[in-house]
Design brief:
Layout: H1 2-32, H2 39-60, H3 65-83, H4 93-122
Helix pairs in contact: 1-2, 1-3, 2-3, 2-4, 3-4
């Protein structure tokens, strides 16, 4: 069991590095696309990117998709984005907290939508 968790976490941490690259572009485009950027609009636009990532997480991670999204989000944003690199270091703490919470929430919503869809198909 523990070996399985370590193997999965290792894959999630590697994926979090690539997640950060896409998220950084989504943040830049969402801020540049607004005439007067606000925190909520930026979080809304980047949530669409996180919904896509949530779909990929639920598609490929069958055991613990919600835990995977938490690890990916924390290591991607806080680990590679702030501590080990400076790709997200210039943004506000509120935006960083919103981004960290966004992927797990998006993954939860995508998983619920998929399970409701499967439930409707089985009836």
């Amino acid at each position: 069991m523990a070996q399985n968790v370590v193997k999965h976490c290792s894959l999630w941490i590697v994926f979090s590095f690539f997640y950060l690259s896409g998220l950084q572009m989504a943040v830049i485009m969402s801020i540049d696309g607004q005439t007067e950027p606000t925190l909520w609009q930026t979080l809304l636009y980047t949530f669409l990117y996180n919904a896509l990532i949530g779909h990929l997480v639920t598609k490929y991670e069958k055991l613990w998709p919600f835990l995977a999204s938490i690890v990916i989000s924390l290591f991607g944003i806080m680990g590679f984005g702030v501590f080990f690199g400076d790709k997200l270091a210039g943004y506000s703490n509120e935006l960083l907290i919103g981004l960290v919470l966004s992927l797990p929430f998006a993954t939860f919503l995508v998983k619920e939508i998929k399970s409701k869809h499967i439930e409707q198909q089985s009836q």
